[in-house]
């Protein structure tokens, strides 16, 4: 049996931008993508702690070191600047491997920067 499990999570980042007139996706600071092992175009689930919205889109690379978290396209309507998000990606593994897998968890500071 193959099951879907949490692969990566960026916990509690702040929305810095929302661009309605864009093709879609979420732009994430490349430092955060690297730390979470999320690659460009990977499907992500987003949870908005401020309004309870849950939605899926795909990640795109944002400028490294900027702390950028920008919702693009229709997802821009699901956030306000300053909202707190949790960004998650999932993977599929055989049951026995899944039992041993430890997800990558990233806990940025209040400015979406990696803690040193």
Verbal overview:
This protein is mainly β and 116 residues long. It has a single domain, classed as Barwin-like endoglucanases, CATH 2.40.40. The protein is 11% helix and 47% strand. The protein contains two helices and eight strands. It has helices spanning 30-36, 95-100, and strands at 2-14, 17-19, 25-29, 43-48, 54-62, 69-72, 84-94, 104-106. An eight-stranded mixed β-sheet has the order 2-6-3-5-4-7-1-8. The longest helix has 7 residues, at 30-36. The relative contact order is 0.36.
Key attributes of the depicted protein:
single chain, 116 residues, mainly beta, Barwin-like endoglucanases, 2 helices, 8 strands, globular
- Give the strand order, joined by hyphens, for the main sheet: 2-6-3-5-4-7-1-8
Number of helices: 2
How large, in whole angstroms, is the Cα Rg?
Answer: 14 Å
Principal-axis shape: globular
Total DSSP E strands: 8
CATH-level-2 architecture:
Beta Barrel
The chain-level mean pLDDT equals 96
Distance between the termini: 39 Å
Q: What is the number of domains?
A: 1
List unreliable stretches of 5+ residues.
none
- Top-tier CATH class: Mainly Beta
Find the CATH topology: Barwin-like endoglucanases
Please estimate the helix content.
Answer: 10-25%
The description of the largest β-sheet is: 8 strands, mixed
Strand content: over 45%
Q: What order do the SSEs take from the amino end to the carboxyl end, as H and E?
A: EEEHEEEEHE
> What structural class do helix, strand and pairing data support?
mainly beta
């Amino acid at each position: 049996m193959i099951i879907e499990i949490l692969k990566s999570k960026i916990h509690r980042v702040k929305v810095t931008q929302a661009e309605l007139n864009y093709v879609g996706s979420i732009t994430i600071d490349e430092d955060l993508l690297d730390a979470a092992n999320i690659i460009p175009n990977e499907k992500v689930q987003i949870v908005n702690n401020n309004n309870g919205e849950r939605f899926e889109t795909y990640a795109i690379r944002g400028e490294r070191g900027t702390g950028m978290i920008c919702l693009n396209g229709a997802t821009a309507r699901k956030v306000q600047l300053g909202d707190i998000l949790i960004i998650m990606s999932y993977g599929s593994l055989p049951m026995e491997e899944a039992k041993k897998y430890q997800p990558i968890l990233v806990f940025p500071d209040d400015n979406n920067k990696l803690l040193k």
